[in-house]
Specification:
Elements: E1 13-14, H1 15-22, E2 34-35, E3 37-38, E4 48-52, H2 58-63, E5 68-71, E6 84-87, H3 91-102, E7 111-112, E8 117-118, E9 123-124, E10 129-130, E11 135-136, E12 141-142, E13 147-148, E14 153-154, E15 159-160, E16 165-166, E17 171-172, E18 175-177, E19 182-183, E20 188-189, E21 196-197, E22 204-205, E23 212-214, E24 219-220, E25 225-226, E26 234-236, E27 241-242, E28 247-248, E29 253-254, E30 259-260, E31 265-266, E32 271-272, E33 277-278, E34 283-284, E35 289-290, E36 295-296, E37 301-302, E38 311-313, E39 318-319, H4 320-338
Parallel strand pairs: 3-4, 4-5, 5-6, 7-10, 8-11, 9-12, 10-13, 11-14, 12-15, 13-16, 14-17, 15-18, 16-19, 17-20, 18-23, 19-24, 20-25, 23-26, 24-27, 25-28, 26-29, 27-30, 28-31, 29-32, 30-33, 31-34, 32-35, 33-36, 34-37, 36-38
Antiparallel strand pairs: 1-2, 21-22, 38-39
Length: 339
Amino acid sequence: MADSRFFQRAGPFDLVSMADIAGADRGGSFTDRSFDDVAPLETAGPTHISFLDNPKYLAAFAASRAGACLVRPDLARQAPEGMALLLSEDPYRAYAKVAAAFYPMVALPPSIAKTASIDAEARIAGDCRIESGAVIGAKAEIGACCRICANAVIGDGVVIGAGSMVGAGASISHALIGERVLIHPGVRIGQDGFGFAMSPAGHLKVPQLGRVVVHDDVEIGANSTIDRGAGPDTVIGRGCKIDNLVQIGHNVQLGQGCVIVAQVGISGSTKLGDFVVAAGQAGLTGHLLIGSGARIGAQAGVMRDIEAGETVGGSPAVAMTQWLRQVAALGRLVRRKGR
C-alpha cells in the first residue's frame, strides 16, 4: 500500500468500474466485493487488484491472494481459485489506468508565493501556481494551470504552454515549451550547445543562436540537459519520454513518441524518427539519421545511420543478431583459451 504521507488514494471501486477504467473484459468474472487499492502479486490481498504481464511471474500469479488481476487471456487459466479476472491484451497499460484512478494527480490550489521573483513584463495566465524562490524573466509567458516549482528559473522570453509543470531547481532559457509538459527537478533546457572552432591558437566559441522547441505531452526526467541549437533549433517531438540524466546536444531532433532511457547521450545534429527507443547508457555520435521505430540496445555505441525498424546493439553498434553472434563467438574463444 502506498504511503499516505505522499499519496492520496481514491476509491473503492467495484469490478465493473475497474473493467471500464481499464478497458478490460471481465470474461465472466463477477464479484460484489469492492477493491480499495492496487498491489503487487506477492503482497496483494482480497481487496486489492494486481496485474500479470510477464510469464516469468506465473508462479507468483498462481499463489497470489489478490482479489482481482489484470491478465492476458492466454495466461488466465493459471489463476488461483476465487480470483476475479480482467482480461486485456496489454495488462500493464490497463494497470496504469487503474492505478491512476486509485491515485489521481492532486491539483494544488493556484497561488503566487511572495518570495517568487516575477518580472513586470512576464505574462502569467490564470490558475497558475508559482512557488517560493521561482524566477520568471522579462516577456516570459506561462500558460494557464501551470506549476512552477520552488527555485525554478524561467528565462527571458521563454514560453510554457498550459498545464505544464517545471520541477524544483530546473532552469529553462531560449525555449518554447508545449502544453502538458512535465519537467522534473534539476532539468536544464536551453543552455549553450557545445560548439567550438578548434585550433592550436585556441578554441573559439561559436555563438549558439537557435532555440529548444519541446512539443506537447513530453516528459523530461530529473537532471537531464537539452542544449539549444546552434542555428537550427533543437526539437523534442510530441509525446517523447526522456529519463533522468540524459544529454541531448545542439540541433538534435527527436520525432514523436521517442523513449530515451537514463544516461543516454545524443550528439549534435543527430535526427531520430518517430518512436525510436534508446536504452540506458547508449551513445549516439553526431550528424546521424536514426529511422522511425529503430531500437538501440543498452550501452550501444551508434556511429552510423540506423534504418527504420532496425534493432542494434554493441559498440560499434551492429544489427542485434550480429552482435549476439559476436558475443557468443568471443565467449567460445575465451573458453578455448582457458582449456
